[in-house]
Predict the 3D structure of the following.
Amino acid sequence: QKEVEQDPGPLSVPEGAIVSLNCTYSNSAFQYFMWYRQYSRKGPELLMYTYSSGNKEDGRFTAQVDKSSKYISLFIRDSQPSDSATYLCAMRTAGTASKLTFGTGTRLQVTL
Amino acid sequence: DTGVSQDPRHKITKRGQNVTFRCDPISEHNRLYWYRQTLGQGPEFLTYFQNEAQLEKSRLLSDRFSAERPKGSFSTLEIQRTEQGDSAMYLCASSSPLAGPGELFFGEGSRLTVL
């Protein structure tokens, strides 16, 4: 069993829809939770990070963490075609600069 | 600041050959990471440098793989006696000690194809 599970999709939604992306994890030592976006043939770029249970909002993006259920989510409101990309969840334990463990990524397609 | 730079962007080689990838991190970043990403998968951690010291290596990094960061600036990742299973995207990332947890800046990757 992988430490981080993520549905690979693809997920296709119409422009303007609310998108929900999710990951589950098994390692209770994970303390920091990140969402990266990766466009085709590009490196991942950080969207958001959080370290506590609850919600964190940044513009159209909301990250949600439920440590008791070992479940994290990313919500995208008013989705745009430019949001079409692969979304990777990533996690790390506490400690200085420890490695990130990534999910497989969910491919999102926002259609006109 | 041009971001993390990787070279070459794409390398095609025959099985058994050696290949070397170079990474130039963002100039003020003292931490440098190598990850490997295969099709349909997320990046997998390979190794981590703080300045010139290699502080962590994954079990994925077999004896055929070696990484260096001789002066704490650029880094190289060498794969000896390549195998078809080495075909992947090799991603370099860097971060600043002032960055938030998990705030890595990735390059565009070096894609390796082993024939």
Remarks:
- The interface with chain A takes residues 4, 31, 33, 40-45, 48, 50, 56, 58, 91, 93, 95, 100-109 of chain B (CB under 8 Å).
